[in-house]
Design brief:
single chain, alpha+beta, elongated, Restrct_endonuc_II_HpaII, endonuclease activity, nuclease, six-stranded mixed beta barrel, hydrolase, endonuclease
Length: 362
């Protein structure tokens, strides 16, 4: 019987099947192209199911599946065929929920795959042993341009930055009037502009959450201020791409650093790349970050054609450049994430902005 799953769930399974079928993966370039000259051989993939760990050993013609209560072989060709069926179904569907193609459910039963999204506590989707089945495992996240992508940073209200309202002191009716501006895609920008029109100004004050503040300070003691400026520009000027925002703050220089540091040393780009890589490798707003990477060591990107591209922390420059040129700031829910309003705290009004970073689709 057919069943439905989201494009994201299908994409994770598709990437997994492609690794098994191909027995190798191409490293991606910073411009999300396949680098066929640099391919890593895949020897084994480890994946978690609700009933335990499965190891998928890649042999010449078969995939040798070993689990707690199972030991069987499935032809590699079958994984190739089913990956093709999944790709075709995902690409041809105009809605997010995709019905399983004919034969796929039977194959999943045969391969003892019951969870389309792996169940892990360490945020990896699955782990890969390259070159040799006994090689150290490398944890990966899967992202797909064929589906809605999980953000790199989505901390909700934990990822809020506080701007202090200075200048003219607003009376309560004025504050209420500002906060009462109707919901719209640009309501945050409209409130910020109204504050300025009425003689107020907003200047960076702090990070709302103590842990997230410290995590950002681990990147640089001035990084929170820099990030707040990027988010402010995103709302007011509509610039969302991280690389374009970096170019903008190079001109405005919110940290008032020397030109040599900006242009010769690439300070702003360097700090942003450092932050993005930390996010990709496990930094979370509400979890203490001490510079130690999590179990996630890389990212597998399914591109619009269905190619699987590998980005790994050992290829640091490429990974950083990929993130720098392929990420954007996004707008979270104003009500859910509690930002975009003037709020009084210890006699002072603050205006919160929210940080949300995602990968671009193209």
């Amino acid at each position: 019987m057919a069943f439905e799953a989201t494009k994201r769930e299908w994409s994770e399974l598709y990437a997994f099947f492609r690794l098994l079928a191909d027995g190798k993966v191409s490293l991606g370039t910073s411009q999300t192209k396949k680098n066929d000259a640099n391919q890593w051989p895949v020897a084994m993939v480890q994946r978690e199911e609700h009933d335990g760990t499965r190891r998928y050993y890649i042999e010449k013609d078969d995939i040798h599946i070993v689990g707690e209560n199972m030991d069987k072989r499935v032809p590699r060709e079958d994984f190739h065929t089913v990956a093709g069926l999944i790709l075709q179904a995902v690409k041809s569907s105009s809605v997010d929920d995709v019905v399983s193609p004919d034969g796929v459910e039977e194959f999943l039963d045969e391969a003892a795959i019951f969870d389309l999204e792996a169940k892990t506590d360490d945020r990896t989707d699955f782990s890969v042993a390259f070159w040799h089945p006994e090689a150290p495992l490398t944890g990966f996240n899967v992202r797909s341009r064929l589906s809605i992508m999980n953000p790199l940073l989505d901390g909700g209200r934990t990822a809020n930055l506080k701007l202090e309202q200075t200048g003219i002191k607003f009376a309560v009716p004025t504050v209420n009037k500002i906060n009462a501006l109707p919901e719209s895609p640009n309501e945050v920008a409209e409130r910020m502009m109204m504050i300025e029109r009425l003689g107020g100004s907003l200047k960076y004050s702090d990070v709302a959450d103590r842990v997230f503040r410290c995590n950002l300070l681990m990147i640089d003691l001035h990084f929170p201020r820099m990030l707040a400026e990027m988010v402010r520009i995103m709302h007011l000027d509509g610039i969302t791409r991280i690389s374009e925002l970096a170019e903008t703050i190079k001109q405005s220089n919110p940290l008032k650093i020397k030109e040599e540091l900006i242009n010769k040393h690439g300070f702003y780009e360097f700090k942003i790349k450092q932050f993005l890589l930390a996010l990709a490798l496990g930094m979370r707003p509400a979890k203490i970050y001490n510079g130690t990477d999590s179990a996630v060591e890389g990212l597998l990107l399914v591109d619009g054609n269905g190619d699987v591209l590998c980005y790994h922390k050992s290829e640091k420059k490429t990974f950083e450049d990929f993130l720098f040129f392929n990420t954007r700031l996004e707008k979270g829910s104003v009500d859910k994430d509690k930002y975009g309003f003037l709020e009084k705290e210890n006699g002072t009004y603050y205006f919160k902005l929210n940080v949300k970073i995602g990968l671009v689709k193209r």
